[in-house]
Structure formats: C-alpha cells, structure tokens
Design goal:
heterodimer; A: Peroxisomal Thiolase, Chain A, domain 1; 15 strands; 20% strand; globular; B: 83 residues; Non-ribosomal Peptide Synthetase Peptidyl Carrier Protein, Chain A
Chain lengths: 406, 83
C-alpha cells in the first residue's frame, strides 16, 4: 500500500502563530488561554477562551480576500500558506489535478455571518454582503485554499465537530492512495463572536472557571468542562516515493486512520466507539497496541467523558502501559482544528524525542489507570503515536503517525 | 449629484473584493474587461449593492453582470444620476 507522509506543517494556535512558536510554547507550557476579549463576555457563564491575538490578516492574505472571508478562513489561509512553504511544494510542478485539499470545519464563518445578520435586521437585505453566500460555509476553507494555490484535484470538507480534523487527514490519505500525489489537509475553527459564543455555552460542556490555569484540566479529579479555542493546523501530505524523489523533508507517516460512531445514547448496551476507533487505527497502521509509544488523547475535560477515554485506553493498552498526554490544555479545544494540531504535536514529539506535558492537570484519579505526562515534558524515544479525537454527536476518530526511517 | 469617477469606482471595487489595488486609473483602464482587472461577478454584485446604498442607483443583478468594463458601469450610473 502507498505510504503517505507529512512534508509540511502550518499552525495558527492560541499559543503560537506558526508551527515553531506553537511547539516551543507547548514544550515550555506557555498557555494561550485567557479572558475572551473579542467582545464583552463578562456576563456569560463562561469567560475564558484560547484566543489568537495579534493576527493581522492584511499581512497574511491577499487584500482582495479580506471582504469575502471570515476570520476562520483567514486563519486557514495563513496556515495553508505556511504548510506549503514549509513543504517547499510548488503545485504548478504537479499535473493539473495532482494536488487537492480536504479540510474540516465545525462552526463555519460565525463572526462574518453574525455581522451580516445584524445588517439584515437593521438595514435590510440590500445591505447583506454577496460574500455571505459562501463565507459562512463549512467548505469555504477548502475552496479558498484551492483557489489561492491552484490545487485543482480532489476537494472536500468533513464536518464532525472535534473529530473532523482527523477525518480530513484520513480522507486526504485516501485521496493520495487513489492517485493524487499531494494533498493539503487539516482543519481550523473560530467562532468567538457573541452569537458563536452562545453556541459554545449551549453545549453545556464549557468550564465556568475563571482561572486560566485551573479552568481546563483534562483527566484531573477537578475536571469541570473545557475551554474552547480557535485556530488549528494545515498539513501537506504526499505520496512517500514522490516526496522522497524531490528530497522533501519527511515529518512522519500517516500510518493509520479509523473512525467510529457511538451508539445512540440509551439505545444500546454497546460501549462508546472510542476504543474501537483506536484499535482499528492501530491495526490499519499494521501495528499492535504494544507498538504505540505515546497517545495524544482527546482530553475532553468533562468528567464522565474523561472516564470513558481513560477506560478505553486502559482496556486497549493495559493500565498505565503507554504514556498519554493532552497538550491541548494550553490551547483549549479547537474543534476541527484540534485533531490536526495534535497530529502536529505528535510529529514534532517523534522528531524531537519528547512528550509535552498535560499542563495544569495535577491529580489524576487512580481508577483511570493512566500514565498521564504531567508538569514537565518527558524524554522518550518515539516511533509511533496515536492521536484521538471525539466530536459532540458521537464521532470518534483516530490517527496513527509513525516516524519515517531515513 | 456628484458623478461617479473611475477613482471612486476603484475605491468601491477594492472594498468589495475586486483585485484592483495597485492599478493606475488611466483612460485605458476604462475599456478593460473587469475579468482582466481582477473583478469577478461577485465583486461586481457587491459593488452594485454599494452603489445602491451610496448613490441610490439601482443596477439590476442581471444587468450588472453584463457590464464588462468600468466605462459601461460608470456610464450606466452617471446616466441614472442625470435622470
């Protein structure tokens, strides 16, 4: 089977506006979580967010795209450009349909749409931008990246809340196996306008904490919900032999992927699907659970969901048998951006032989049977990593990344 | 009422997603197709909506996409302003 490798990484995260900033923040424990300042959120039950500050779209994307893009699309365009530059890929050197895009997005162009709705209700339909027609849309990041960089091959979008970013990577891998040599893939979300924030709050899963270091504590005894973040990551995936032929730098291989759905709540005695997604992804990589050197967990921060994930890991690997971490404690949960950012973390962890810690979490229930990396990064020789993501609504996805030899 | 100039139109196009930044407003540009000026049909529809709000001139959607050059658009708008 064709091997699929990662040759480029682009990151836009609350604790780093490019891949190297993000990685050094992740290792040093620098948080991107703080009070939400995009609007006055002080009267809301949740007030903390993983917010990207200091992003100037004028510096990042062509001027003509400014009136037609939501901030989430501006983030996606910036990360895609970074990834393509990092991969040193020139799409024009491939066949006309030899390069494509698959992204994930969970919340659409919320802030843009909020603004246009305000115009609709206060000034009438004639004041609504024509660009609302696509700026709101989940698929718009795929489209804008495709147009900007001339990526004319397979193009699609996957929407499965926080699991979607891994689904996009799995789908891009399939496109490469079907004959497209280069795919840009990943996911980005942002929805920190008042309307978007209301949608987050309504999930009932947000932390009401006001201390950035105590609000989002994946797997902690005091876990009490999560903090939403914005941003994500875009990756360049390539068919391995073609990447090697052009002497590309290889971050690692997307070796396995699987997705499952949870049974409908109350409808079945079957367990949640996370364990099976993990097991299937490991098998898809041609590995056994004992081959996995580290797990980057979904790390919900919602107590019962943390317990479900811990049980799945203990069951698949044996209690305490594999190091687990959730570095997203420093960014919040990024929805579609979360999985690709964790895949980025996994690739850089393998490259540098280090597992970043789960910041802020200090006391893990013994019943979880988790070897959670706490307080400090842990040195370790890593060859294979499992990345997990769950999306609200029953989505479970898993990706296995593996080091490429030579 | 003040007539719509090519400079005015370019400012509008820029704020409406037309890719005209850096282009000089020379007489030749008046005759250039919007396509060649980096303005697609959505940029023109957005500009027509802005013209309606700012100048009160209504350009029907099916007509604005038929206007292929700045001259065609400016003549239509200024003709309507006279009436």
């Amino acid at each position: 089977m064709t091997a699929v490798v990662v040759t480029g990484i682009g990151v836009i995260a609350p604790n780093g506006r490019n891949a190297s900033e993000f990685w050094s923040a992740t290792l040093s424990g620098r948080t991107g979580i703080g009070p939400l300042t995009r609007f006055d959120a002080t009267s809301h039950p949740a007030v903390l967010a993983g917010q990207i500050d200091g992003f100037d779209p004028v510096e990042q994307i062509p001027r003509k795209l400014l009136p037609q893009t939501d901030v989430s699309t501006q983030f996606a365009l910036a990360a895609a450009a970074e990834a393509l530059a990092d991969a040193n890929v020139d799409p024009a050197r491939f066949s006309r349909y030899g390069t494509g895009v698959v992204t994930s997005n969970a919340t659409g162009g919320f802030a843009f749409t909020h603004r246009e709705f305000q115009k609709l209700w206060t000034q009438g339909p004639g004041a609504v931008s024509v660009y609302e027609s696509f700026a709101w849309f989940y698929a718009v990041n795929t489209g804008q990246i495709s147009i900007r960089h001339g990526l004319r091959g397979p193009g699609c979008v996957l929407v499965s809340e926080q699991a979607g970013g891994l689904d996009a990577i799995g789908n891009a891998r399939r496109a490469i196996r079907l004959g497209t040599p280069v795919m840009v893939t990943g996911g980005v979300d942002s929805s920190f306008d008042p309307w978007g924030w209301a949608s987050h709050v309504s999930s009932g899963r947000l932390s009401r904490g006001r201390d950035p270091e105590r609000a989002y504590l994946p797997f902690d005894v005091d876990a009490n919900g999560y903090v939403p973040g914005e941003g994500g990551a875009l990756l360049v995936l390539e068919e391995a032999s073609s990447a090697r032929a052009r002497s590309a730098r290889l971050y690692g291989e997307i070796a396995g992927y699987a997705a499952t759905f949870d049974p409908r709540p109350g409808s079945s005695e079957r367990p949640p699907g996370l364990r099976r997604a993990a097991e299937l992804a490991v098998a898809d990589a041609g590995l056994r659970p004992t081959d996995i050197d580290v797990v980057f967990a979904d790390g919900s921060g919602v107590r019962n969901l943390d317990a479900v994930e811990a049980a799945a890991l203990a069951d698949l690997f044996g209690p305490g048998r594999v190091p687990v971490s959730a570095p997203k404690a420093l960014t919040g949960r990024l929805y579609a951006g979360g999985g690709p950012l964790d895949v980025t973390t996994a690739l850089l962890a393998i490259r540098d032989g280090v597992i970043p810690a789960t910041a802020h979490t200090s006391a893990v229930p013994a019943s979880y049977g988790l070897d959670l990396v706490l307080r400090e990064p842990r040195r370790a020789e890593l060859r294979s990593a499992l990345v997990l993501a769950r999306g609200k609504g029953g989505f479970n996805s898993a990706v296995v990344v593996r080091c490429t030899d030579g | 009422m003040q007539k719509l100039s090519l400079d005015d139109l370019f400012d509008m196009l820029k704020s409406c997603g037309g890719d005209v930044a850096g282009l000089a407003t020379t007489p030749e540009v008046m005759e250039m197709p919007f396509d060649a000026l980096g303005c697609d049909s959505l940029a023109l529809l957005e500009t027509a909506a802005l013209i309606r709000r700012e100048l009160g001139v209504v350009i029907p959607d099916d007509q604005v996409v038929e206007m292929s050059t700045p001259r065609a658009l400016i003549d239509f708008v200024n003709g309507s302003l006279v009436d």
